[in-house]
Amino acid sequence: MINNEMENKGSLNTMSDLEFDKNSVEMMRYRANSLSYTLGFVAILCSLFAAFICLNSTQPITFAIILKIILNIIILLGGFLCCEKAKAYSKNASIGLMVFGGICIARIFWIPLQLIIYYSKYLTALSTQDKALENEALKYLGLPITGVNTGGANAWLPSSGYVRATIAIVLLCLAGLFFILSGIIGYARSKKLNTYLDSLKKN
Fold first, then answer.
1. Are the CB atoms for 161 and 57 separated by under 8 Å?
2. pLDDT band at 157 (very low <50, low <70, confident <90, very high)
3. CA atoms within a 13 Å half-sphere pointing along the CA-CB vector of 76
4. Residues 112, 113, 116: CA angle, nearest 5 degrees
5. Phi and psi at residue 33, in whole multiples of 5°?
6. In whole angstroms, what is the distance from residue 68 CA to residue 117 CA?
7. Of 130, 108, 9, 120, which is closest to residue 53 (Cα–Cα)?
8. CA-CA distance, 19 to 97, in Å (whole number)?
9. Which of 7, 81, 105, 190 has the CA that lies 20 to 30 A from 89?
10. Burial of 11 (0-12, 13-18, 19+ CB in 10 A)
C-alpha cells in the first residue's frame, strides 16, 4: 500500500510539473518576451556609447568614420526592429540579435584597436621628436586626444587614447554579450512556443 501511495504521489507530481509547464507556455501567448527586449535595448545603448567614444577620439572626416556612422545606424535601427519582433517571439529576429552581437564583438578589432595603435605611435613620436611618425598618428587621432590642453573643465573623457579605447572595448563587449543573450533567450522561447502551438494544431 505504501508503494501504491508513493507511485500515486510520484504520478501526481509528474502531472503537476507537466501542467505547470503547459500553463507557462500558454501564458507566453499573452505575454510579451520582455527579457529579450530589455537585453537587446541595453545592448543598443552600449553600442551607441561606444560609438560616441570612438567618433570623439578620431578624425571627424575619414572614410572609416563615415562607414562607422552608417554601421551604427544599421545596428540602431536593425537592433531596435529585432528587439520589437523578438518581443513577439520571432525566431528570425532572435537570430538577427545574435548576429548584431557578433558584429559588436568584431568591432573591437576595428577603431578601438586602431586607437591603441595610433596613440602608441603618437606617444613614441612625442618622446623621440619624430615628426613623420607624429603626422601619421595625427591623421587618425582626433583633437580631444592630441589637443590635451584644449579640453579643460569641459572634457568629459580623459585625453588618453588607451583609456578611451579600453572604455569602448568594454562597452562593445557588453553590447555583444547582451545582444547574444537576448537572441538566445528569444530563440529558445520562440521555439518552445511554436512547438506548443503546433501541438494544438495537430490536436
1. yes
2. confident
3. 12
4. 90
5. -80, 75
6. 18
7. 108
8. 32
9. 105
10. exposed
**pTM of the predicted model over 0.85:** no
7-18 pLDDT per residue, tens:
444 444 443 444
> What is the grid cell recorded at 88?
513577439
Set of cell numbers at residue 115 = 586607437
Helix/strand/coil (H, E, C) string of the chain? CHHHHHHHHHHHHHHHHHHHHHHHHHHHCCCCCHHHHHHHHHHHHHHHHHHHHHHHHECCCCHHHHHHHHHHHHHHHHHHHHHHHHHCCCHHHHHHHHHHHHHHHHHHHCHHHHHHHHHHHHHHHHHHCCHHHHHHHHCCECHHHHCCCCCHHHCCCCCCHHHHHHHHHHHHHHHHHHHHHHHHHHHHHHHHHHHHHHHHHHC
| Confidence (pLDDT) at 23 | 62
158: left (phi over 0), alpha (psi -120 to 50) or beta: beta
Render pLDDT for 194-203 as a digit per residue (tens, 0 to 9). 777 767 666 6
Amino acid at 166: T
C-alpha cell of residue 154: 569641459
Spatial contact of 167 and 107, defined as CB atoms under 8 Å apart:
no
Partners of residue 58 on adjacent β-strands: 141
